[in-house]
Specification:
With 167 residues, the protein is of the alpha+beta class. One of its GO terms (molecular function) is protein-glutamine glutaminase activity. This is Probable chemoreceptor glutamine deamidase CheD.
Amino acid sequence: MDIFLMPGDYFVGDDQYRVRTLLGSCVSITLWHPGLRIGAMSHFLLPGHGRRKADRPQEKPGMYAADAMQLLLDGLARHGVPPAQCQGKIFGGGAMFPRSARVRDIGTQNGDYARGMLQRHGIHVVSESLFGEGHRQLIFTIRSGEVLSRQVPPEPGWRNAGARTQA
């Protein structure tokens, strides 16, 4: 069965599932237990913790990295999966607009935050595909633990998309 994650979504399930998503500056973390063939995947937009408020009921629970990670850990616990026995993979954090040398863009912040979270939870990162330009397409096959990642470069001329010309 195929599951498609939108921004702020997450999924935890067994080997009958394949999970897909598209990432720009967002980041996905996949966690996979090879013996149990249970996997989890997030699609978060922002680093840190969300401050869910009643005036923003439309926010999905996995919008922020730390919240998404907790949802993955809780889901794995319901399946009896110790997170430290999982293989972690990290994807995304692409530049969707020209990067500035002076400012750490949101994609870079997301990727760095994801690395730190996995380290703090004692989860070994076996691979990552972070940063660069453009967006990524991901397919996570829980049966095998394989994550296919294809980075799609931005359209030609994107670096000048915000440039102004003087008449």
